[in-house]
């Protein structure tokens, strides 16, 4: 019997080793396979550029023009997007809250409703804002170019931020982080991108309808068939019909005429 068995085995080539089923692989190997396969892409099944390896928050492999191929430029793009996202989220939240609290005030020209005096006071306010924003942006740029160089308070030198990643200062600016930081970074970018699109929509709705976002939404819901983007504008061969811009080209404020043209005036009739 042993001779028969050895002759059968010897007469057949040995089969190639079979990979262990997924349930038998080590946890590290399984997690690596799942992480690589589960990476979300803007176009499922596409091959992302080499410089977009998924390490950045909200990286879905979208860079058709290769603008981020340079590593330094990619870092600056990521930092700029974070800042724009945060400003957009603040702006969208402020517009919505203002319309809820004071629906009688149109957010687009709400600032001119506040009288702060003559033109000299307005110019002083603008000068102070320019100085303050310039100072903040310079400090942010210095921290980007030389991480950690701005962590110490320039006036009260006994205060210093803990070591942190550029763009995420932590410390007193984030005393409590409710959840995993890597997950929160992705959520921030996603919400920020949505907020940037929302702000553009708020601006266009204000210019087309002369209404705030909630009022424009209510107008659409009351008549969804006749109140759409297609009912406001139409393009046919040789002709284009667009809505009238509801924003005056110039807004007087405190003795100063402030230009307030509509976006892309060439699209308006």
Question: Which descriptors apply to this entry?
Answer:
single chain, about 270 residues, mainly alpha, Chlorophyll a-b binding protein, two-stranded antiparallel ribbon, two-stranded antiparallel sheet, 7 helices, about 45% helix, about 5% strand, globular, disordered N terminus
What structural class should be given to the helix and strand makeup? mainly alpha
What is the CATH architecture descriptor of the domain at 67-225? Answer: Orthogonal Bundle
| SS summary, helix count | 7
Number of strands: 4
How far the N terminus sits from the C terminus, by CA atoms, comes to: 97 Å
The strand order across the widest sheet is 1-2
Binding site for chlorophyll a 4: 220
Pfam family, one: Chloroa_b-bind
Subcellular location: Plastid, Chloroplast thylakoid membrane
Function: The light-harvesting complex (LHC) functions as a light receptor, it captures and delivers excitation energy to photosystems with which it is closely associated.
Describe the structure.
Helix 3 crosses helix 5. Strand 3 and strand 4 form a beta hairpin. Helix content is 45%, strand content 5%. It is globular and about 50 Å long. It has a domain of 159 residues: Orthogonal Bundle (Chlorophyll a-b binding protein). The protein has 269 residues and is mainly α. The chain contains seven helices and four strands. The strands form two sheets. The protein has a two-stranded antiparallel ribbon. It has a two-stranded antiparallel ribbon with strand order 3-4.
